[in-house]
Amino acid sequence: MRCSLSHALLAASASLLLALAPASAVLAQTTAAPTAPPESLIPLPQASPQVVLKQAIGLTNVTVDYHAPSVKNRVIWQGLVPYGQIWRAGANENTLITFSDTVRVNGKQLPAGQYSFYVFPRSDQDWEMVFNRVTTHWGAEGYDEKDDVLRIPVVPEASAHHETLLYWFSELTTGSAHFNLSWEKKTVSLYIDTNVQARVVAGIEKAVAQRPNDWQLLAQAADYLVQNNLQAEKALSYINESIRLQDVYTNNWIKARLLASKLDYDTAITYGRKAIKLGDKDDASFKSQLPNMRVALIEWQSKAY
Fold first, then answer.
1. Position 20 confidence tier, pLDDT thresholds 50, 70, 90
2. Which fold has domain 196-304?
3. Which of 42, 70, 155, 301 is most buried when burial is the number of CB atoms within 10 A of its CB?
4. pTM of this prediction?
């Protein structure tokens, strides 16, 4: 009898506790089951990894941010990438290209800024490379031609096989480069010109105006103009003022080279000899230049007489 009473009391207590428990707790007891960890917590490599390519062209910085898909034995052109449709020129988010300064692309001006970059491939005519002002799309979703800032016609060329989509720069000069996209067995290219010389000349004029009595700055400015065959008369005025302020071998040698570039070899020889005479034979920089200075003098003498 006692045993039956004890069991009855325990059962009643359990029922009371269950009745008082929160509904969520009861639900958890009846439905809880082991679950796998969320897939997002597992570090996995991307099928199309992100690439950030940075290139300085003259004084301009260019950044290309894209996701690089691979061929993986698929048909790419007129397959994965249909002809006659805008293509994100990469995978996942839209490809972005940023210019720190205004540039010319195939001769057409493109203001500084960030753009979505697309390609419009065709089977029977030139392709188009597209710079679009909207940078928040997912790939080509929401693309609108009215937001295009610049469209450049290009002719695709056959190339060696590139398993993974590749953006790359080639033929770099002081202020220009070719910008290339290669994938599978095709390459398309654009020519980017940063007009760097005009920017440098403007910077020279500003610096000289701020420090007109700095003979080294004047010599540096003249030397750049001479090396790049720019504004010979301005270079001559800079180097004459530099020599007036401080008569040393460096600025005399710059003037000699400038005069030689203007085919005034007689006067160039005079300043060249003066530069060698002023040079300090114990100065490492002068000693390293001396052999080339003597060779230049011999060349000028052969042209002068």
1. very low
2. 1.25.40
3. 70
4. 0.75
